[in-house]
Amino acid sequence: MKSVIGALLIAAFITPALAADEYYVVRDNSTKKCMVVDKKPTTSTTTVVSECGKVYTTKTEAEGAMKTVKVCSEM
C-alpha cells in the first residue's frame, strides 16, 4: 500500500513538469516569414531557426528571441 501511495505522489509531481509549455521560433519555407509556434514542426514546410533548435518556455521569450535570429530580421 505504501508503494502505491509513493508512486502516486511521484506521478503527481512529475506530470506537471512533463506538460511544460514549449515554444519554437520557426520559418515558413515558402513565405520566408518567421513565427512562434507551440508545437515542434513535424513537416518540411517549416524549419526551426532558433539558435541550435532552442526550445523556449514562454511565448514572450520566444518572440524576443525571434528578433535576434538573423534569418528573421533580414526581411
Polypeptide structure, described:
- With 75 residues, this protein is an alpha+beta fold.
- It has one domain (21-73).
- It is built from three helices and three strands, in the order H-E-E-E-H-H.
- The chain has helices spanning 2-18, 59-66, 70-73; strands at residues 24-28, 34-37, 46-48.
- Strands 2-1-3 form a three-stranded antiparallel β-sheet.
- The protein is elongated.
- The mean pLDDT is 79.
Count of DSSP E strands? 3
Poorly predicted regions are none
Q: How much helix, percentage-wise, in residues? A: 25-40%
Strand count, sense and barrel status of the largest sheet are: 3 strands, antiparallel
User: How many domains is the backbone divided into?
Assistant: 1
Overall body shape: elongated
Give the number of helices: 3
Q: What string, H for helix and E for strand, traces the elements in order? A: HEEEHH
Strand content: 15-25%
Structural class: alpha+beta
Separation of the first and last Cα atoms: 62 Å
Strand order of the largest sheet: 2-1-3
Mean pLDDT: 79
What's the gyration radius in Å? 17 Å
